[in-house]
Specification:
Layout lengths: L11 E2 L2 H10 L7 E5 L5 H8 L3 E6 L4 H8 L1 H5 L3 E5 L14 E5 L5 H10 L6 E7 H8 L7 H9 L1 E8 L4 E2 L6 E7 L11 H11 L7 H5 L5 H10 L13 H8 L2
Parallel strand pairs: 2-3, 2-5, 3-4, 5-6
Antiparallel strand pairs: 1-8, 6-9, 7-9
Helix pairs in contact: 1-2, 8-11
The structure holds S-adenosyl-L-homocysteine.
């Protein structure tokens, strides 16, 4: 018996209905290439393989590797599954074919995983991730609830909240509920004609001080008169808060 390691964010799914929902959300079908982060004991891996996908699974826990090798011996011999013992944060993935990222990820590196794969040169077509419910809600938030996180994600893809997953669907149960998050239509297209670096510089500055209005925050990186003119020209009210700014307006501020 192997005990779950808290330090590796191990909460193993036990609810097969949720496993199906994750795979359904990714529209997984035969011939797909799937990158899975943290296969754990293989419950999600098994469903992905059943649907005929080719799976590359990256697992950091050495103790789980022999267990997975045993469980999936046939699939590994047929090269339908490649199991790689590695930390996902050190793993460079750039396959020739398109791929989907589908995983019940360790929550302690949620932000790093999302950023790594959205910004990578070889992005997945879509991601289906189990994340903490509150994180999924923050990412899909609109109408005055935008954040650095939500705008960053929306610059690369279209996030959708698929469904809530109760803490009791895992062993051990995490402290909070989770959610299935889909990020679809991932690309770098939004950044055509603008600098990605400048976009994020403006975004970070804009959200730097929560209580200040956008104008006050952006004065740190723009000349005041120029900023005033720009905002006016684009029809952005001078007293707007960063939380109310739409993605397209951030882009406008970027244009030179
Ligand atoms: N997918 C499985 C396990 C989820 S728990 C299930 O749904 O049941 C998270 C998994 O990620 C664990 O197997 C853990 O060992 C693995 N993990 C944690 N940190 C990791 C990292 N940095 N790189 C790759 N895998 C990691």
């Amino acid at each position: 018996m192997i005990f779950a390691k808290k330090s590796l964010g191990q909460n193993f799914l036990t609810n097969t209905g949720i496993v199906s929902s994750i795979v359904d959300a990714g529209l997984v079908s035969s011939g797909d290439t799937i990158l899975e982060i943290g296969p754990g004991r293989g419950i999600l891996t098994e469903e992905l393989l059943k649907r005929g996908a080719r799976v590359i699974a990256i697992e950091k826990d050495a103790e789980l590797i022999p267990l997975l090798q045993e469980k999936f011996r046939d699939r590994m011999e047929k090269s339908q599954l490649s199991l790689i013992y590695e930390d996902i944060l050190n793993f460079n993935f750039s396959p020739k074919e398109p791929y989907k990222l589908i995983a019940n990820i360790p929550y302690y590196i949620t932000g790093l995983i999302i950023r790594k794969f959205l910004t990578s040169e070889k992005q997945p077509e879509k991601m289906v991730l189990l994340v903490q419910k509150e994180v999924a809600e923050r990412i899909i938030a609109q109408n005055g609830k935008e954040s650095l996180l939500s705008i960053s994600v929306k610059a690369y893809g279209t996030p959708t909240y698929i469904k809530t997953v109760k803490a009791g669907s895992f062993t051990p149960a995490p402290k909070v509920d989770s959610a299935i998050l889909l990020i679809d239509s991932i690309s770098h297209d939004f950044f055509k004609g603008i600098s990605e670096e400048r976009f994020f510089k403006i975004l970070h500055a804009g959200f730097a001080h929560k209580r200040k209005q956008l104008f006050g925050n952006l004065k740190a990186i723009f000349k005041e008169t120029e900023l005033k003119e720009r905002m006016k020209g684009f029809g952005i009210p001078e007293n707007i808060r960063a939380e109310d700014m739409l993605l397209e307006n951030w882009k406008k501020l970027c244009e030179v």
